[in-house]
Amino acid sequence: MFLADKAMAARIVDLLETAADDRILEVGSGRGTLTELLAVSGARVISFELDRELIEALNKKFTDIPNVKIINRDFLEVDPGDYIDGRFKLIGNIPYDITSPLIDWLMRYRSRLVRAVITVQREVGNRIVASSGSRNRAPLSIFCQCLFEVRSVITIPPKAFYPPPRIYSSTLVFEPADKCTIDDWPYFRDIVRRAFTWRRKKLINNLVRPGTIDRTGLERILDRLDLSSDIRAEQLSIEDFIRLADNLKAAEKS
Questions:
Q1: Quick one: pLDDT at residue 122?
Q2: Which residues lie closer than 8 Å to 30 by C-beta, 6 or more apart?
Q3: Which of 2, 43, 118, 245 reaches 20 to 30 Å from 191, CA-CA?
Q4: What is the pLDDT of residues 179-193, one digit of tens each?
Q5: Are 47 and 26 in contact (CB under 8 A)?
C-alpha cells in the first residue's frame, strides 16, 4: 500500500517543519513519494526500505540527489547513531503490525528525537491520543502521553493510497516532553499492562497477584488514592497510574 495522493503527501511533510540543516530518517521509502518532497528542502534524508523489489527503482530515482540515501534495512533494527550525529526528525507511513515496535523505538531514542510525523491506522491513532475515560484508552495511550506531546492532525481516506485499503489512516505528530516522573519505568509499564489485561473487569481484579498483594491490600491502596474499588483502567489518569504504581511497589516490598 503506497501513498498516492501528492497533495496529502505534501500536507504530511509540512508537519515535519523541515529545514535545510535537518537530519531526517524515513521509515519505509515505498515509491519515494515523501522522500521526493523531503529532498527538496535540502535536508539530509536517510530512507529505509525493507522490500528489495523496491530498492533498485528507488536507487535509480535518487541516484543524482546527493542529500538522499536509500538503505535496504529493517528500520526497527536501526541505531540512528550508525547513520547520523546529533538529533533527527522522523517520518513514515507505518504498517499496522510494526506500530507498537516503532513506538518503542521512538521511546528508546527520544533524547535525540526532535519531532516524528507518523501515519498509522486510524483506530491505532485514536488509541494513542485517547484521554482518560475514553473507550479507546489503552497502555499505548499512557506510554505515549507520558513521554511525548502527541496529537492527531490529519485523517486520510482510503482513496489516498494505492491500492486503497478498507480503513482510514491518521497522521500523528510526536514531540518529546518530560511530562511524567517515573522512578521505575519497567515496573510502571508492567502495572499499566496488567491493569488493562481484561478491559471489562474492574481494575482491582486485574491487579490482584496472589502471594504478592491481595484484594484487601489493593482496596486499601485505592482508598488511599481516593479511587473507587469499582474503577476500570481506562478511567485512570496518567497521574493516577503513577501514584498507583508507586504505592503497589511499596506494598510489595513491605
A1: 97
A2: 2, 3, 49, 54, 93
A3: 118
A4: 888 989 999 999 999
A5: yes
Neighbours of 154 (CB within 10 A): 18
Domain 2-176 and domain 185-253 have a common topology: no
- Domains of the chain by residue range: 2-176, 185-253
Q: Among candidates 149, 144, 153, which has minimal Cα distance to 175?
A: 149
Chain-centre distance for alpha carbon 129: 10
Nearest CA to 154 among 10, 39, 27, 19? 10
Domain 185-253 annotated CATH 1.10.8.100: yes
Return d(Cα 123, Cα 121) in angstroms, integer: 6
What are 217-251's pLDDT values in tens digits? Answer: 999 999 999 999 999 999 999 999 999 999 999 98
In this structure, the chain runs to a length of 254
Task: Work out the mean pLDDT of the chain and round it to a whole number.
Answer: 95
Find the distance separating the first CA and the last CA of the chain, reported in whole Å: 53
Between CA 247 and CA 243 the distance in angstroms is 6
Residue range 37-87, pLDDT digits in tens = 999 999 999 999 999 999 999 999 999 999 999 999 999 999 999 999 999
Architecture, CATH, for domain 2-176: 3-Layer(aba) Sandwich (3.40)
